[in-house]
Specification:
Layout lengths: L4 H9 L12 H8 L5 H10 L2 E3 L3 E3 L9 H13 L23 E6 L4 E6 L6 E6 L6 E4 L3 H9 L18 E4 L10 E3 L6
Antiparallel strand pairs: 1-2, 1-7, 2-3, 3-4, 4-5, 5-6, 7-8
Helix pairs in contact: 1-5
């Protein structure tokens, strides 16, 4: 029996609190990108974003004016397209390296300069995940689903390359991302994890 990492992440994060209940406009974003985003990615971000987890990891939402996932994806593609990150040639990218539908699509980032990208294999439709720590032109591929990647990140494994793990024992710490310049962020904790 295979492990359901989406359910494991949802159990670890617990009930949605403080974050406004927003209907995610995934169809609109996917039409703009020209690809269908992974179901587990849409489920987790649709449920919790926009939010910061454990003081580092940002999850953005496709339907908010601030912290807008689609706008952030576009800005990140533009920034990385102008950079001199050539390590990806060894990973088999032959067309444009960044941007949908055939290049790397930004999925999330941290306040430590780390980014997680996804790319869709044309022939199989399977998603591949690649992380970059921002300081080096090195990318690491993770052969797993988004929810497994997130689960492993949250338990402190090295998910942005060797030595990148950040383990925080106890419940996940949430911080809301203000929807206006006058709104304050709010912090709370998820359920006990036994860690």
């Amino acid at each position: 029996m295979s492990h359901n990492f989406t359910d494991s992440v949802i159990r670890m994060l617990g009930e949605v609190r403080v974050v406004p209940a927003l209907v995610a406009t995934w169809g609109e974003l996917e039409r703009e990108l020209g690809v269908r985003l992974p179901d587990d990615y849409k489920e987790i971000l649709g449920r919790y974003a926009p939010i910061q987890l454990n003081g580092h990891l940002f999850l953005k939402h496709p339907s908010t004016p601030r912290w807008n996932l689609g706008r952030w994806m576009e800005e990140t593609v533009q920034a990385f397209s102008r950079s001199d990150l050539t390590d990806l040639e060894r990973l088999g990218f032959t067309g444009p390296i960044f941007g949908a539908p055939s290049g790397l699509i930004p999925l999330l980032n941290t306040d430590r300069g780390e980014d997680l990208f996804g790319a869709v294999e044309e022939d199989t439709g399977k998603w591949r995940l690649f992380s970059c720590d921002g300081d080096e032109a090195l990318y690491y591929e993770y052969g797993m689903s988004f929810s497994e990647w997130l689960y492993r990140y949250l338990i402190g494994e090295d998910m942005f390359g060797p030595g990148s793990g950040v383990f925080y024992p106890g419940p996940i710490v949430f911080e809301s991302m203000p929807m206006s310049g006058t709104e304050r962020s709010v912090k709370w904790k998820g359920p006990e994890r036994g860690m």
